[in-house]
Amino acid sequence: MKTLIDFVFLIILYFGKFFKKWQREGQDKLFIKTLMYIYLSFLLYFTLMPIITKIPFIFNHPYESMNLNLFVDVINGRGDFIRQILLNVIMTIPFGFLLPLVNKKKITLIKTIFYTFLLSLGIELLQPLINAFRSSDITDILTNVIGGIIGYILHLIFKPLTIKILNYIKK
Predict the structure, then answer these.
(1) What's the confidence (pLDDT) of residue 89?
(2) What whole-number distance in Å separates Cα of residue 171 and Cα of residue 168?
(3) Backbone phi, then psi, for 137, in 5-degree steps?
C-alpha cells in the first residue's frame, strides 16, 4: 500500500507535468522519454520505495555511512555478492542506453559515466536515509557505472536500428 502511494504520485506527476510537454515534442520523443520515465520509476521502486510515507521518519534512525571499501563483500565472501554485482550492473544498462536518446545534447561516454555516477551516488546516499535497513556501498556505485557504460556501448551498436524505430514512430 505504501508503495502504491508513490506510484500514484509518479503517475500524477507524469500526466500533470511531463506528458503534454513531451507530446508537443513529437511521438518519438514522447515514446523515448516515457520509456526513461518508466525505467526511472522502476529504479526507484527497487532501490528506494516507499518514499513518501517514509519522509516523516527519515531522521528517526541513525544514518549509516557509506561503505568505502571496494568489493569488501567479495573479499570477505559475504552474502550473495555475485548476484548483487550482476544486479547492480544490469540495473543501469537501460540508463546508459536511453540517456543519449533522451537528451538533445550530444551524450558521450564520459557524460554517460558522469550521469550514471550521479544517479548511483544519489540512490546510495538516500537508501540509508529513507530506510534504516538499507546500506550504501561504493561497490554498488562502481558496478552501476559499469552498467551505464555497457548500456552506452549497446546504444552505439544498436543506434542504426534505434533510429529506424524512432523514425517509424515519428510518422
Answers:
(1) 97
(2) 6
(3) -145, 135
Query: Which residues of the chain carry a pLDDT beneath 50?
Result: none
Check residue 130 and give its pLDDT: 85
Cα(112)–Cα(43) distance, integer angstroms: 17
User: Which segments within the chain are labelled E, that is strand?
Assistant: none
Q: Which residues pair with 137 in a beta bridge?
A: 67
112 DSSP assignment: H
CA angle, corner 144, sides to 83 and 76, nearest 5? Answer: 45
Q: What is the pLDDT of residues 107-138, one digit of tens each?
A: 999 999 999 999 999 999 998 888 777 778 89
H helix or E strand, kind and range, residue 87: helix 81-102
Q: Which of 17, 46, 165 is nearest to 101 (CA)?
A: 165
Q: Which residues pair with 67 in a beta bridge?
A: 137
pLDDT value for 132: 74
d(CA 10, CA 22): 16
Radius of gyration of the chain (CA): 18
Can you give the residue ranges of every domain in the chain? 2-60+71-170
Taking every pair of Cα atoms in the chain, the longest distance, rounded to a whole number of angstroms, is: 55
